[in-house]
Amino acid sequence: MLQFLFAVTLFFSVAGSRLGEGGLDGGIFRSIHIIDFLAPFIAVTIFRKKTAIKGCLGQNAFITLQVWLLYCFTAGILSSLLWLDWTGQKGGYALVAPLFALKELEFILLLWLAVAIGFFYYSFYIRVIIVLSCCAVLWMAKEFLLPTGYYFTGLPFEGGAAQTGLAYAFLALNLYYVLENPSFASRNRFPKDVFFYSLLLLLVMGSLSSLSRTTGLALAAACILLFIFRIANFPSIKTLFRIVTFVSMFIFFTVLFIDADMMEMFFGRWFEFNSASSDRSGKWFQLFSYQLYNSESLFFGFGFNSPNPLVLGSDLGNVLAVDNGYVRRLFELGFVGVALFIFALSSLALRSLRCGGVKYFSAALTIFLFSAFTIESFQVSQIASLFYLTAGVIIGRGYYNRFVRSFFNSALSGKSS
Question: Which of 139, 188, 221, 303 has the highest local Cβ count within 10 Å?
């Protein structure tokens, strides 16, 4: 059951699972996803693995995550009820606030689910990632012929540029994590190595073909970070060979699939200067000004789902219209909420450091944090789900490799001696 729930959740996290329409659909169904209906089953299933999950995460991270959730269900909801008028149109926004808190709970459940998969069923995870990567590349080929995305390529159930690009980016990172695992790498030699790294490059192309500039920056930052970690292994002929091969294949596939018109469209989008930036900065200035004017909100915020009715306009409904995850976090949850959120992410980063998976966790966190500059990644279900699923597997498997496997290896070596 655990494996089935993980496979289905990861599939819809990549392909998209929103019940409402995209764009400016402000209805309540916009905030509801297919994964939301799986959350109760995930909670019941992982309860039986709670001891192992807590051991993987460690006491500090486990408690910090619970404190973060407690804050979401108290200050996040109560502040919304306090600041939004019950009697007027704004009352409906306060009633939706608990759904935002439940969404944060769902993300933590996905993290725990992925931790259990990384610890108990890593071989299954490898198969799921390879199959899903192949399917994503086939879908990308179809999108190159018949694009359905907002700018160019899209996903089966999601056309947003940032969502498409980040879904491919997280999937590429998961495949890279699989390929770099010693147990998997030792079983694959040429030509399998070439096939899998070609698959990885195609996923990177799929991410860039969404024409999301946010995704491009996030992906570039993650690649630079991974490259810095790689440099630490020099002088390694094997490492140098892989980097040269990776770059060469990327150039080859770029020349093979992208013609002159498509290249012009790509660069036209990436170097396009329009009013989008000024519109975003104008909204952020409005939100900051409103919060400074109501300075008592700086500590605990205005509560979930408050930016639209208080500042941006009630006509936007439940659309995540702030276009910045950091500005929205501060406006909704205040400095206390922002601090607790930082502590929660930091506790996971420290755990990955202790478990030996900090390189891959740092790349996932980089994509997550960079994307939040122009999209509310912390609350966009598809993006946040992919981050927590990726982080959970890295921590779960890292804990297994660092502590459990080493313990058994030590025990076996002790018996042999």
Answer: 303
Average model confidence (pLDDT) for the chain?
A: 82
Could you give the maximum distance between any two Cα atoms of the chain, in Å? 77
Please tell me the distance from the alpha carbon of residue 402 to that of residue 119, in angstroms, as a whole number: 11
Q: Which residue has the tokens 């450091």?
A: 353
Rounded CA-CA distance 355/359 in Å is 11
- Round to whole Å and give the CA distance between 41 and 236: 46
List the one residue out of 360, 373, 404 whose CA is nearest residue 177: 360
Measured distance CA(382)–CA(158) in Å, rounded: 10
Count the neighbouring beta carbons within 10 Å of the beta carbon of residue 215. Answer: 27
Distance CA 288, CA 361 (A): 31
CB atoms within 10 A of CB 244: 10
Give the single-character DSSP code of 119. H
In a domain, 282, yes or no: no
CB atoms within 10 A of CB 127: 13
CA–CA dist 356, 26 (Å, integer)? 43
Task: Judge contact between 266 and 42, C-beta under 8 A.
Answer: no
Taking the C-alpha atoms of residue 160 and residue 403, their distance in angstroms, rounded to an integer, is 41
What residues contact 84, with CB distance under 8 A and at least 6 apart?
90, 91, 93, 94, 302, 303, 306, 309, 310
Encode pLDDT of 335-375 as tens digits.
999 999 999 999 999 898 888 888 899 999 999 998 998 88
> φ and ψ at 4, to 5 degrees?
-60, -45
What is the C-alpha to C-alpha distance for residues 206 and 153, in angstroms, rounded to an integer? 8
Q: Cα 210–213–216 angle (5° rounding)?
A: 80
Helix, strand, or coil (residue 33): strand
d(CA 48, CA 367): 32
| 277 part of a folded domain | no
In a domain, 342, yes or no: yes
What digits encode the pLDDT tens for the residues 163-185? 999 999 999 999 999 988 876 66
Q: What is the pLDDT of residue 31?
A: 67
Please report whether residue 311 resides in a domain. Answer: yes
Q: According to the model, what pLDDT value does residue 411 have?
A: 46
Contact by Cβ (8 Å): 319, 27: no
Q: Which domain holds residue 57?
A: 2-270+291-416
379 Cβ neighbours under 8 A, 6+ residues apart = 100, 103, 320, 325, 328
| β strands within 51-174, DSSP E | none
Into how many domains does the chain fold? 1
